[in-house]
C-alpha cells in the first residue's frame, strides 16, 4: 500500500514537472494542476495510512485518524483551485494580447 | 487581558476591502476615501502596537481562544511590530500616489490593495506555519491582480512568469509543511521549535530536507539568486505605486527566513540546528553581486530600481546569514531604510517617466523634463540615500552592518561586495541622472525621429510629489533618531535570535498543555 501511494505521488509530480517545462500555457496549466493534486495527496498522507480508525478522540481509543491533514487538504484544494482559475484567465488574456501561447510571450521561430 | 488591537491590522483591511468590492461601481473618489482612511487607521494601530512592543514583552493573540498549540496564534514581537509599521506607512504613501490617477487605469485597484495589506500583515503576525501559507496565498493572489493592473503586453508577460513561479513555489511550500507536520505532529511554530529540539536522529535527514525545501520557497519570495529572475520584469513593468509597495514584499521573504530559521532551526534545534548557516551567506552574496551587475547593466531607470531591490535583499540576507545578535540588529536598522528608499526611487522614476514623453524611463537622451529642479532634487536625494553616502541613513546603516560582521570569517567578502555593490549603484544612478537631466536634446529636434512628440507633459502639483518626498524625508529622520532605533533593533534582535522568549510567550512558561501525538498513537 505504501509503495503504491508513494509511486502515485512520484509519477504525478514527474508528469507535472514535465508538463510545466513545456513552456506553453495549456500544458503548463495542466502540469501545475497535476502538481497541485500530487501535493494535496501528499498532505493527506501526512496523517499516515490507516483503515477503519475512528476520527473522534475518546479515552477508549488509542488509535484514531488524524483529522488535521483533512482540514489542511481542504484549504489547499480551495486555494489551488482559485489559483488555477486565475491562471486560466491570465493565459487567455496573454493569448489575446501577445498573440502566442508561449510562456515568454514570444515565439522562438516565426509562425509559418 | 487580551490585546485585541493585535488582530486589527488584519481585520480592518479585510473589512474595508470587502466594502470597497461592494462599491466597485461607485465613483472612484469614494473608493479612494475608504482605502486611504483604512490605510491611515492601520498606520495609527501599528504605531500603537510598535510603541507597546518596544515597551513590553512579546504579545500573543489566540484566535477563538483555542488553547495553543491547537489553535491559530498571532504573535507580536518587536520585529513583527516594526514590519507592520513599515508596511502601513509605505502603503499609505503608495495609495496616496496611486490616488493621483494610477487607480483609474483598471477596476478594483483599491480592493486589491486592501487584500494585499491583509496578506502582508498576516504573514508578519502569524505564529502558525500553515497559516503563513494561507497569508502568503492571499498576498500573492492580490499581488497578481496589482502587477497586471492597467494591462498591456509587457505587464502580462512579466505577470505570467510571476504567477507560474509562485504557483510552483506554493506547491513546494506545502510539501515542506507536510513533511514537518508528518514528523513533528504540529504546525504551531513555537511548538515546532520545541519538538524539533527533541526529534530523534533517524528523522534528521527528512527534517533537514523539509527545512531546505521551505528555504527554497522563502528564497523565491525574497528573490535570492537563482530564484530572482522574475523580479526585474515584474517590478520594472508594473505601475509605480504597486512596485513601491512591493519593495516590502521581498522583505516578507527576508522576515520569514529570519523568523523560521532563528526559531524552528535555531542553534538549540537538535538535528535541525544551524541548517542555513552554510547556505544563506553564500547565496546572499552571489545575489548581491548579480543584483549589482544588473544595476550597472540596465538601460532603464525602473529596471535599475528593480535590481536595487535585489541588491538590498542580498545585503540584508548576507548580514543576517552570519546569525549573530549584533548583525541581525544591524540588518533590522538597514531594513526600513532600504525599503523606503527603493520605494521612493520607484515613485521618483515614475515622476520622471511621465515628464519625458519620448524616452520614458529609458536612459537615452530626450528633451528636458518639465520641472528639472524639483525632480532633480528628489532624484539626487534618493540616489544619495540608496548609494549609502553621508549624511543620509544609508551610510550609517551600512557602517553599522560592516562593523558588526567584522568577527565573521566571511567578513572580507561581505565588505567587498557590499561596498562594491554600493559603488556600482552610485555609478549607475549617477549615469542615469546625467542622461536624464543634463544630456538633453534641443527642445524641437526634428532630425532624430525622437523628440518629435508634442503631447503636453503633466505639471506636478504638491499632491503628486509629496508621497515620494515624504518617503525621502524618512531617511534623515532615521539618522536623527538613530540611537533610539539602534537600541530598539538590538532589543528586537535579542527576541529573534533567542527562541526561548518566543516559545515562552506562545506556549506559556510552564508548558503545562498536554502534548498530544495525534497520528495513530505512535
Topology summary:
The complex is a heterodimer of chains A (112) and B (522).
Chain A: H1 2-20, H2 25-45, H3 68-98
Helix pairs in contact in A: 1-2, 2-3
Chain B: H1 8-22, H2 28-55, E1 59-62, E2 73-76, H3 78-98, H4 109-125, H5 129-147, H6 153-184, H7 189-197, H8 204-222, H9 231-237, H10 240-246, H11 249-263, H12 280-297, H13 301-320, H14 325-354, H15 372-387, H16 393-404, H17 411-438, H18 462-480, H19 482-497, H20 499-507
Antiparallel strand pairs in B: 1-2
Helix pairs in contact in B: 1-2, 1-4, 2-3, 2-4, 3-4, 3-10, 3-14, 3-18, 4-5, 5-6, 6-8, 6-9, 7-20, 8-11, 9-13, 10-14, 11-13, 12-13, 12-17, 13-14, 13-17, 14-15, 14-16, 14-18, 14-19, 15-17, 15-18
Give a quick set of tags describing it.
heterodimer; A: 112 residues; mainly alpha; 63% helix; elongated; B: 522 residues; 20 helices; 2% strand
Summarize the structure.
The complex is a heterodimer of chains A (112) and B (522). Chain A has 112 residues and is mostly helical. Chain A is 63% helix and 0% strand.
Describe this structure in words.
The complex is a heterodimer of chains A (112) and B (522). Chain A has three helices and no strands. Chain A is an all-alpha fold and 112 residues long. In chain A, helix 1 (2-20) packs antiparallel against helix 2 (25-45) and helix 2 (25-45) runs antiparallel to helix 3. Chain A has one domain (2-54, 64-98). Chain B is mainly alpha-helical. Chain B has one domain (4-507). Chain B has 20 helices and two strands. Chain B has a two-stranded antiparallel sheet with strand order 1-2. Residues 512-522 of chain B have low confidence and may be disordered. Chain A binds chain B through residues 20, 25, 28, 32, 35-36, 38-39, 42-43, 45-48, 50, 53, 57, 62-64, 66-69, 72, 75-76, 79-80, 82-84, 86-87, 90-91, 93-94, 97-98, 103-105, and chain B through 130, 134, 137, 141, 144, 148, 151-153, 156-157, 159-161, 163-164, 167-168, 170-171, 174-175, 177-179, 181-182, 187, 516, 518-522.
Amino acid at each position: 500500500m505504501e509503495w503504491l501511494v508513494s509511486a502515485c505521488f512520484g509519477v504525478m509530480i514527474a508528469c507535472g514537472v514535465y508538463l510545466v517545462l513545456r513552456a506553453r500555457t495549456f500544458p503548463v496549466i495542466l502540469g501545475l494542476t497535476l502538481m497541485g493534486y500530487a501535493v494535496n495527496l501528499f498532505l493527506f498522507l501526512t496523517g499516515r495510512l490507516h483503515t477503519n480508525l475512528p476520527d473522534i478522540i475518546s479515552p477508549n481509543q488509542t488509535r484514531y485518524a488524524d483529522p488535521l491533514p483533512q482540514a489542511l487538504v481542504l484549504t489547499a484544494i480551495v486555494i489551488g483551485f482559485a489559483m488555477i482559475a486565475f491562471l486560466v484567465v491570465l493565459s487567455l488574456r496573454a493569448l489575446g494580447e501577445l498573440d502566442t501561447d508561449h510562456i515568454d510571450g514570444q515565439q522562438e521561430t516565426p509562425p509559418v | 487581558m487580551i490585546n485585541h488591537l493585535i488582530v486589527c491590522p488584519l481585520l480592518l483591511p479585510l473589512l474595508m476591502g470587502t466594502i470597497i468590492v461592494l462599491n466597485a461601481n461607485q465613483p472612484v473618489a469614494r473608493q479612494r476615501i475608504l482605502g486611504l482612511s483604512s490605510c491611515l487607521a492601520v498606520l495609527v494601530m501599528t504605531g500603537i502596537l510598535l510603541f507597546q512592543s518596544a515597551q513590553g514583552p512579546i504579545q500573543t493573540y489566540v484566535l477563538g481562544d483555542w488553547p495553543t498549540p491547537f489553535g491559530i496564534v498571532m504573535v507580536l514581537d518587536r520585529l513583527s511590530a516594526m514590519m507592520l509599521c513599515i508596511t502601513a506607512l509605505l502603503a499609505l504613501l503608495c495609495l496616496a500616489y496611486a490616488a493621483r490617477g494610477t487607480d483609474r487605469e483598471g477596476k478594483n485597484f483599491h480592493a486589491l490593495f486592501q487584500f494585499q495589506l491583509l496578506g502582508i500583515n498576516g504573514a508578519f503576525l502569524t505564529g502558525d506555519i500553515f497559516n503563513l501559507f494561507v497569508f502568503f496565498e492571499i498576498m500573492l493572489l492580490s499581488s497578481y491582480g496589482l502587477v497586471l493592473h492597467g494591462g498591456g503586453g509587457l505587464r502580462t508577460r512579466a505577470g505570467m512568469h510571476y504567477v507560474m513561479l509562485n504557483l510552483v513555489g506554493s506547491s513546494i511550500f506545502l510539501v515542506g509543511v507536510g513533511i514537518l507536520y508528518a514528523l513533528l505532529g504540529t504546525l504551531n511554530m513555537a511548538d515546532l521549535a520545541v519538538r524539533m529540539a527533541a526529534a530523534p536522529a533517524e528523522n534528521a535527514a527528512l527534517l533537514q530536507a523539509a527545512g531546505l525545501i521551505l528555504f527554497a520557497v522563502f528564497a523565491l519570495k525574497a528573490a535570492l539568486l537563482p530564484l530572482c529572475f522574475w523580479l526585474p520584469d515584474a517590478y520594472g513593468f508594473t505601475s509605480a505605486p504597486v512596485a513601491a509597495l512591493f519593495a516590502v514584499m521581498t522583505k516578507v521573504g527576508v522576515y520569514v527566513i529570519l523568523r523560521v530559521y532563528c526559531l524552528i532551526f535555531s542553534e538549540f534545534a537538535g538535528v535541525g540546528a544551524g541548517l542555513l548557516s552554510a547556505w544563506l551567506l553564500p547565496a546572499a552574496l552571489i545575489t548581491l553581486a548579480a543584483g549589482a551587475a544588473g544595476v550597472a547593466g540596465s538601460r532603464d531607470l525602473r529596471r535599475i530600481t528593480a535590481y536595487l531591490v535585489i541588491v538590498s535583499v542580498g545585503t540584508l540576507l548576507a548580514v543576517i546569514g552570519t546569525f549573530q545578535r549584533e548583525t541581525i540588529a544591524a540588518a533590522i536598522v538597514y531594513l526600513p531604510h532600504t525599503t523606503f528608499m527603493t520605494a521612493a526611487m520607484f515613485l521618483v522614476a515614475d515622476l520622471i517617466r511621465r515628464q519625458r514623453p519620448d524616452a520614458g524611463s529609458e536612459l537615452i537622451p530626450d528633451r528636458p523634463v518639465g520641472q528639472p529642479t524639483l525632480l532633480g532634487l528628489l532624484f539626487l536625494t534618493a540616489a544619495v540615500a540608496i548609494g549609502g553616502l553621508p549624511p543620509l541613513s544609508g551610510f550609517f546603516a551600512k557602517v553599522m552592518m560592516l562593523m558588526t560582521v567584522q568577527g565573521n570569517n566571511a567578513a572580507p567578502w561581505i565588505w567587498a561586495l557590499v561596498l562594491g555593490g554600493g559603488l556600482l549603484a552610485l555609478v549607475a544612478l549617477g549615469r542615469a541622472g546625467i542622461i536624464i537631466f543634463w544630456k538633453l536634446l534641443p527642445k524641437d529636434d526634428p532630425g532624430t525621429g525622437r523628440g518629435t512628440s508634442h503631447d503636453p507633459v503633466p505639471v506636478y502639483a504638491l499632491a503628486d510629489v509629496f508621497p515620494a518626498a515624504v518617503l525621502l524625508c524618512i531617511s534623515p529622520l532615521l539618522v536623527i533618531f538613530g540611537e533610539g532605533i539602534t537600541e530598539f533593533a538590538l532589543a528586537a534582535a535579542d527576541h529573534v535570535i533567542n527562541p526561548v522568549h518566543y516559545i515562552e510567550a506562545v506556549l506559556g512558561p510552564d508548558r503545562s498543555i498536554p502534548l498530544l501525538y495525534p497520528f495513530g498513537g505512535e
